[in-house]
Amino acid sequence: MIRAIVSRIMQGHRTMPYPASPLQMPERFRGYPAAASLARAIEHLSDSTRCPYDAITMTDGGCLDLGKCLFCAECPAGNIEFTSDHRLAVTQRDHLLVKPGSDRKHAQPLSSDLRRIFGRSLKFREVSAGGCNACEADTNVLTTIGWDLGRFGIQFVASPRHADGLWVTGPVTENMVKALITTYEAIPTPKIVVASGACAINGGPYIDSPRVSNGVDSIIPVDLYIPGCPPHPATILDGLLRILDKIR
Length: 248
Known about the structure:
The chain is of the alpha/beta class and 248 residues long. It folds into 2 domains: 35-84, no CATH class; 112-243, Rossmann fold, CATH 3.40.50.12280. It contains 7 helices and 8 strands, in the order ααβββαβαββαβαβα. The chain has helices at 2-11, 35-43, 112-118, 134-141, 177-186, 198-202, 233-243; strands at residues 56-57, 63-65, 97-98, 122-128, 154-156, 165-169, 192-196, 224-226. Strands 5-4-6-7-8 form a 5-stranded parallel beta sheet, with helices on both faces. Strands 1-2-3 form a 3-stranded antiparallel beta sheet, covered by helices on one side. Helix 4 (134-141) links the parallel strand 4 (122-128) and strand 5 (154-156). The protein is globular and about 65 Å long. The N and C termini lie far apart (43 Å).
């Protein structure tokens, strides 16, 4: 027992101080796009340089849809530079449409009634609706000692009956639609829904496949969109803390 106590003291405090202090993102992390490079990519967009997932379009003068973007850094329209800003989550689907020089959008707090209910204890039931397990892996990282999601009162539970919200990953394959709806209906009201990852938001690399849904919101309403392929744990945590009004 003494050895265990001494070892724990030697290890020190392992949980990161975020959000009390900023995160140091990895050098290769690709976050919010730089406006100048996005403008150049839109300017050189053509049929031969179009994104295979239509992440870059000429809609309303040109924009990058972060919900469709896989952050692959191989844009045929030219190199889009991505900053290290991990704050990508939003509460409205159209806020993922980034235009050069447009105002930045972030996830907004839930209504005061929902914050009163979920502010200190928010439980999710996750449904992996045909995903590759990358989004699930980065979500699971948040439960480790380094991130300690539970310190914010947020946890994942085994039963939808014990949940306050539904966490969806994957493109919602044809065989998972019924399971998704059944799980959603089993969660008591009021409840919230989170679409985590490009697949859940818009089908990801499987977009327009006849066997998947182009976004969870085509089946059930979504309250928080977390883009990425997969989303970084910092992006996920930022979105959750913002809807609970724990950071601004």
